[in-house]
Amino acid sequence: MAFSPDSLHDSDDQKSEYDFAKMPNAVRGKYAIRGVTSTLPKPLAPSRPLLPLWAGALVIYWLAMFIGTHIPLSVPTVGGKPVDKYLHFAAYFGLTALLIGVFRCLRVRLRWKHFFIALALLVAYAALDEWLQKFVNRSCDAEDFMADSAGVLSALGLYIITHRGSAEQSVAQ
Question: Which residue among 27, 36, 88, 107 is least crowded, i.e. fewest CB within 10 A of its CB?
């Protein structure tokens, strides 16, 4: 079986056979033995058919978040303590996770520049969102902005940590 990057996704089986001898050295890794055929689990990768679902969820979530943050409300409390910072964190964590899902459906090899672009765009949006709130009788709060930014950083960091082994080469570039 000749090796090609697409051959990792061609089989419908849960396991596929790969001939290490025909793989380039960079793909084989340091543990491969020449001439040995191994059965490896088929990599799980999001596919383009899921793109409309992820993109639709992202657009709906983002619109709901924008509308929700521009409706004058009182600060939610639990047991007399405000919990709005947790809500800000969770909202931006979810927004970042959906954006990553869209990139994964597009099969974009996520590199450091993609993470910095996503970080810059989402943090800039968080700043704009907080600034716009003062025009609808809500407060423009630096602590809310920090909670938003922490949600973005946490989602990006969690993705990097959980996909470190499978995306090590793409993130390192």
Answer: 36
